[in-house]
Structure formats: structure tokens, C-alpha cells
Amino acid sequence: MPEAVVIIVGAGPSGLAVAGCLSRLEIPYLLLERDDCFASLWKKYSYDRLHLHLQKQFCELPHMSFPSSCPTYLPKKQYIQYLDDYVAHFKISPMYQRNVESASYDQDSERWVVKTMNKEEGCGGEEEEFLGRFLVVASGETTNPYVPEIEGLSSFDGEVLHSTRFKSGVEFKNKNVLVVGSGNSGMEIALDLANHGAKTSIIVRSPVHFLSRRMVYLALVLLRYLSLSKVDSFMVLLSKLVYGDLTKYGIARPKEGPFFMKIKYGKYPAIDVGTCSKIKSGEIQILPAEIGSIRGNDVELKNGKSYQFESIVFCTGFKRSTSLWLKGDDYLLKEDGIPRPSFPNHWKGQKGLYCVGLSRRGLYGSREDAQNIANDIKSSL
């Protein structure tokens, strides 16, 4: 069976970052990817208007900067081009359509045994096994699209789609559209729908911090010099000054600070790129309650109010699948796929097991994780 020093599971930006670092150190590896391309979330499952929310210097992968000609906030197309260039530069060759069925540590050989299903055309679901001294979980925070179970959802007469299938609001012009989920994807998709003339509503059932891109950049700089609580207090003050009281529109502000919530719960602040003004103008309607049930085109909320919609876009995130295939690990990853050890020791497990991109610190966190992992493996050889 094929063997390498390192096996990496997942060829998103985090997996590519590890591969790039290992290539630079001339450490052999295998990179397994379940889809038919690398960075499939960016290439196949993201909406057209997507831009990086952080300035480009916080989003670079290890050992390769963005071209100086790139704008401060990269659009999706340019970020994909950067990833293409990164793969070419480090000569990264993922093994595609390998769905990992299990990964377990063999005590006798002191190797990780990774079993996959090869779904490439002509392979007919052939089972394969790979051996590696080290295993890197790089399957990320956005693994399997999640849609909540809702009474009567199957009876809905219109179009139902997850955010991974939404491309542009242009096809929804003049339609009544409900966006479920008020994270950054939900807020941006609601904005895109409103910009293209859709009659847009969004369910916002939890308090939300609104911050601008500049506020987030300022916070990241200040966090180098000030405590988290002081930075959070300053960001809340700025948000109040810029956005005012949003309770009149149905949006409450959380009691805990935006970056505290990001670290503790993985809940990101809403990085505003125009949604807030659309809410204030009434072009985006806020519905502050969960869906109770659906009957045809009628969507009844748990507060008893009912509305009619022609389309529903679920921006309800993802479920991580690591616990389904990673066997015998009771140290590094919890059942939900998040590391048990706290930052900054979250990336290293036992018996040569590592994880990358799970620190809830975005692409910048992936970059640091990848460098730490590669250097740690190098020191072990």
C-alpha cells in the first residue's frame, strides 16, 4: 500500500498550506481530497460577490505573498488565482475523489492507516489504504452543509437551497426570498438579493455585533498591544457610534464582546459591507424568530407570525465529519471536530496526529498552524 511520511486529509487552503510548508522542507506527503479539485468550497460552492473579509496580509498562505497588484480585500476570483499559483509554485498534486472512510493508528507499525473510497471515474468505488507516520486533519470547519430539520420543509412549493448552492441574486429579482441564518454568509447573501431587486427577509434570532472591515483591521492591530476585553469594549463603542441603536430594526447587540465570542463560541461578528444600510432603509426585513413550520409557501415563525416566500436560502453553516472517520483519538479533537487543547497548543495531538485551520482564527490561523506542524514534523525526523 502507498506510504508517505505525512498524510494530509483535505485540500482546502489549510491543507494546501501544510503541503506548501512540507514541500519547502522536502518532506514527502500525500494529500487526499474528497472532491475533484482543491479549494472546492471556493471554486464550486461560494457565491459570486464573495471577498476576503480581512486585509490580504492576514490571508496569505505560508511562504508566498499576494502580488502587489492585488486589492486590499481580494475578490473570490483573485483569491482562487492565488491558490492556483500556490499549488503550481509548490508543485502540489492532491489525490482527488478520495473519500476518507477511516483513519486509525497501528501500534505495531507505528503508522497511521487511512482507508479511502476512490470515486474517480473508472475506479468503481475502489477501496484504498495509505500509510503515514504523521496524519494532518485539514478537512476544516466547513465540511458538510447543514440544513435544520423543519416541520413541513418538504412541502415548500418554491426553491430551497443551502448557501453553498447560491451564486447570485440576479435570478431572484422581484421574488420574495427568505434568508435563514445571520452569519456573514447570510448577511452578504441578503445584501446581494436586495441589490438585485429581491424582496428580502432574513431571520436574525440571536444578538449580532456589526463591525466594518476597518474596525476589524483596527482590532487585529490593537490586539497586539491591548487585552481582549479592552479591544472588545472599544469595538462595541465604535459600533454604537457608526451603526447606532439597531434594536428598532429587530437586532440586539450581544452582552459579550465580538472577539471574545469569536474565540469562545466560534461566532464571528457580522462584517458589514452594506447590509446594515439596507436593513435601515427597509430593503431587507428582519424577522427575529425561528421557523416553526412550513405549509406550501407559508412560513410560520415561532412567534406566531406567518409570511409567504417563493425561495428560501439556508445560511446555516456546516457540520464537521471528522468524528465519523478519525478513530482512537481521545486527546486532540472533540466530537464536534474542534480541538480539545486550547490555543496556542490546539494543533498538536498524540502519535503524530495534527490538525490545521480549526483554531477559529481564519486563514491567518491556518498559516500559523501549518508552519508549526511542518516544523514539528521536521524536528521529529
UniProtKB/TrEMBL annotation:
<dbReference type="Pfam" id="PF13738">
    <property type="entry name" value="Pyr_redox_3"/>
</dbReference>
<dbReference type="InterPro" id="IPR050982">
    <property type="entry name" value="Auxin_biosynth/cation_transpt"/>
</dbReference>
<keyword id="KW-0285">Flavoprotein</keyword>
<keyword id="KW-0521">NADP</keyword>
<dbReference type="GO" id="GO:0050661">
    <property type="term" value="F:NADP binding"/>
</dbReference>
<keyword id="KW-0073">Auxin biosynthesis</keyword>
<dbReference type="InterPro" id="IPR036188">
    <property type="entry name" value="FAD/NAD-bd_sf"/>
</dbReference>
<dbReference type="InterPro" id="IPR000960">
    <property type="entry name" value="Flavin_mOase"/>
</dbReference>
<comment type="similarity">
    <text>Belongs to the FMO family.</text>
</comment>
<comment type="pathway">
    <text>Plant hormone metabolism; auxin biosynthesis.</text>
</comment>
<dbReference type="GO" id="GO:0050660">
    <property type="term" value="F:flavin adenine dinucleotide binding"/>
</dbReference>
<keyword id="KW-0560">Oxidoreductase</keyword>
<dbReference type="GO" id="GO:0103075">
    <property type="term" value="F:indole-3-pyruvate monooxygenase activity"/>
</dbReference>
<keyword id="KW-0670">Pyruvate</keyword>
<dbReference type="GO" id="GO:0009851">
    <property type="term" value="P:auxin biosynthetic process"/>
</dbReference>
<protein>
    <recommendedName>
        <fullName>indole-3-pyruvate monooxygenase</fullName>
        <ecNumber>1.14.13.168</ecNumber>
    </recommendedName>
</protein>
<keyword id="KW-0503">Monooxygenase</keyword>
<keyword id="KW-0274">FAD</keyword>
